[in-house]
Amino acid sequence: MSYIVAFVSFEESTKEFPVQCFRTDVKRRDKVIVRRTDGKLRSAIIQNLKYFNWDCNGRIECKEDEVIYKADGEIVLPKGSPLVFGLATHDIFIKELKLHGWVPVKSRRRQYRAVLGCTNATKVAYIFVRKNGVDIQILARIDHEVIKPYSLHALSFSEGEMVHHFLAHTTFNLFEGMLRFSKSFIENEVNLDRYFIPQGRSDKRTEELKKKARERKSSRSEMLDIYDACSDGDGGPAYLGDGMWISSAGGLHDLGR
Which domain of life is it from (predicted)? Predict the structure, then answer.
């Protein structure tokens, strides 16, 4: 799973392919080295970068100017060149929160891969990190409350102030935004309302993918109508003619007469 998705094109094609990108130091039109699904390394150009949190097959290994080309054209990846750079993964984000003083706590809610808490002069905050998003909860701090490492978070989400952010379709790097929240909270900033505007969408699909899904659904519905009209009601294939049969699922099959 890659929060940042790079759409790249290869020299022999103008078609764009989505690949995993774990570096925040690349931008549009950068030349990069991509490891394809078949394991081969290819030079490519980044045409676009999106925050989709998709599970892509290929991935960016490094920038092209970081590699060495052998005489026969073989690409040699540089030693020590980072596959991950910047706040591009859940693990890096969690590590940064801990460096900021956030304490890991336990939760019975299985959707969270990590929960971290922190206090300031007047409030207690929790950051919940899940596969597809990041949630925040803020409550009033009572009697100089201290969060103990790996203590159990047993509070209801109806308590205090709560927001659910999704990674897909954010217009900025949400991990970087949550670190800005961390800084604001630790510094006792009074107005934190801007961090409680929900970001992203639960549906990872683009509008184009949604349109294709609607078209497939419509096409399948039409085929099922045809099946219902031709079927004798036993659930088996229905004969259309010229050796073609339609199944109860709407699929066409050449089974002969």
Answer: Bacteria
- Give the Cα separation of 242 and 236 in Å (integer): 18
- Looking at residue 222, its pLDDT comes to 67
Cβ neighbours for 80, distance < 8 A, ≥ 6 positions apart: none
Predicted pLDDT at 169: 97
Helices (H) and strands (E) in the chain, counts: 3, 16
Spatial CA neighbour of 122 closest among 144, 104, 103, 102: 144
CA distance 186 to 227: 64
Q: Which two tokens stand for residue 163?
A: 């927001």
Taking CA 181 as the corner, what is the angle to CA 176 and CA 182, rounded to the nearest 5 degrees?
95
Determine how β-strand 103-107 pairs with β-strand 152-153: parallel
CB atoms within 10 A of CB 54: 18
Tokens of 9: 């094109």
pLDDT tens digits, 48-106: 999 999 999 899 999 999 999 999 988 999 887 788 999 999 999 999 999 999 999 99
Determine the Cα–Cα distance for residues 98 and 89; give it in Å rounded to an integer: 15
How many residues can be counted in the chain?
A: 257
Asked whether the whole model's pTM tops 0.85, one would answer no
- Residue ranges of the alpha helices (H) in the chain? 90-99, 174-186, 207-230
| Pair 60, 40: CB distance under 8 Å | no
